[in-house]
Write a structure and sequence with these properties.
Helices cover 21% and strands 34% of the residues. It is built from nine helices and 29 strands. The strands form seven sheets. The chain has a seven-stranded antiparallel β-sheet. Helix 2 packs antiparallel against helix 3 and helix 6 packs across helix 7. The longest helix has 19 residues.
């Protein structure tokens, strides 16, 4: 083959010849007759309609992480056509009623979730030790959160590639690989909620195919994983996973769920002990397990292992609890209080970007590079000047009846 350097055509003429050849080829490959499309064009609806939709989205779905209200409006002939999707059936009904006042025919093409194609399998259980939940339906998607084995989820949508749009007990909505979820109907979910269960309490471990730690592994496990209890075999619990695999878990590494729940107490001492068990766990954006945590994933796990379900993100956690301090009066804080960090805007609002847990004696524990302890005291060897300068407030979660806080229940788990 002749190289470009040896071609007798000057470079500009050669490029022009290639361009013309490609252009003629593309023209020759085009359709010989014009495409027929007599359907009337859709145009964006009037601002009065879109403003109503936006006000409903702000009212019913202010946090897009926990609710879907994605609706667009178009005009076609003398009609307004609504498209998009939502998992808020009531909000959609209110919107349709409100738009009747606009005295224009409304065509409802809004997709209501869960989608009908799922039929009755709109529930699921996490069947792997740690399920990675992503913002987009692909493995390369950004990690949004995690869910542990036995976590019940609501299934909203299914992509052609098998990925599922789910909502977790803390209301977080994101995508998960179909292979991590056992889909089921309502009856099976209700059964799962009440059957005897085992909770894994050690940081890391395994379930085995036989009641022996020398037997092949069925699955890895981390603290917080839950399985159905079948029987007790000597020093092992015989368990069934959500996808019906069976295994054996050493009793010294787990507990019967109801017994575990009855034995825990959400105290300053227990929160501190649980948090320190996670020392050195690596930082992982989106992580909420012993395999890796981000800042709010760490506080969420520390509270979860004491029976309390916090919202997922720091910007959500700051919305719950009782404000204890905003000025750095550390004497007012108790172990287990959450510290929030970020920036104060000129309009007086705050942007929360980080959360930690107070330990006492000027120290706090948080996930930053890894789970570690820092200090607010400038004279301390572990003084964290960066976070001390961006401290915003401290909040106390341990208050009966606090809105936004979930509590693990006997038998039903969530």
């Amino acid at each position: 083959m002749t190289s470009l350097r040896q071609n007798p055509l000057p470079m500009k003429k050669f490029i022009l010849a290639c361009f013309l050849a490609v252009s003629f080829a593309l023209l020759g490959a085009g359709p010989t007759t014009p495409r027929k499309n007599n359907a009337p064009k859709r145009v964006k609806a009037d601002s009065s309609i879109t403003q109503i939709i936006e006000s409903f989205a702000l009212r019913f779905a202010p946090d897009k992480r926990t609710a879907i209200f994605q609706i667009d409006a178009f005009r076609q002939n003398n009609h307004v056509i609504l498209t998009g999707r939502t998992n808020l059936f009531g909000a959609k009904s209110f919107l349709l009623d409100r738009l009747k006042n606009e005295k224009v025919p409304i065509v409802d093409e809004i997709k209501t979730l869960p989608e009908p194609e799922l039929e009755d399998k709109v529930y699921g259980l996490v069947e792997v030790s740690v399920c990675n939940i992503r913002y987009s339906p692909r493995h390369a998607g950004e990690l949004a959160s995690q869910a542990l084995m036995g976590t019940p989820v609501r299934i909203l949508e299914k992509e052609d590639n098998g990925w599922l749009l789910i909502q977790t007990p803390d209301q977080y909505i994101s995508w998960v690989d179909r292979g991590a979820i056992t889909m089921m109907n309502k009856d099976l979910m209700e059964r799962w909620k009440v059957v005897p269960k085992v909770i894994y309490t050690r940081a890391y471990g395994s379930a085995y195919s036989e009641p022996s730690e020398e037997a092949p592994t069925v699955s890895d496990l981390v603290a917080g994983c839950m399985m159905e209890l079948v029987a007790e075999k000597g020093d092992f619990y015989q368990v069934v996973f959500p996808d019906q695999r069976q295994g054996f878990v050493p009793k010294r590494e787990a507990n019967i769920y109801n017994q575990w729940l009855a034995g825990i107490a959400v105290t300053e001492e227990n929160l501190t002990k649980t948090a320190k068990r996670m020392m050195g766990v690596p930082y992982l954006w989106g992580g909420t397990s012993f395999k890796g945590v981000d800042c709010s994933g760490f506080t969420k796990m520390a509270y979860f292992l004491n029976g309390i379900v916090l919202p997922r993100d720091a910007s959500q956690q700051v919305m719950i609890g009782e404000t204890i301090d905003k000025t750095g009066n550390w004497a007012e804080l108790k172990a287990g209080d959450l510290l929030f960090f970020g920036e104060k805007r000129e309009d007086g609002s705050e942007r929360v970007v980080h959360v930690a847990m107070w330990l006492g004696n000027g120290e706090f524990i948080h996930a930053s590079d890894k789970v570690r302890v820092g200090s607010m005291m400038a004279t301390a060897p572990n003084y964290d000047e960066y976070n001390a300068k961006r401290y915003l407030r401290a909040k106390r979660i341990l208050k009966t009846g606090m809105a936004g806080v979930g509590v693990l229940k006997e038998g039903m788990v969530y």
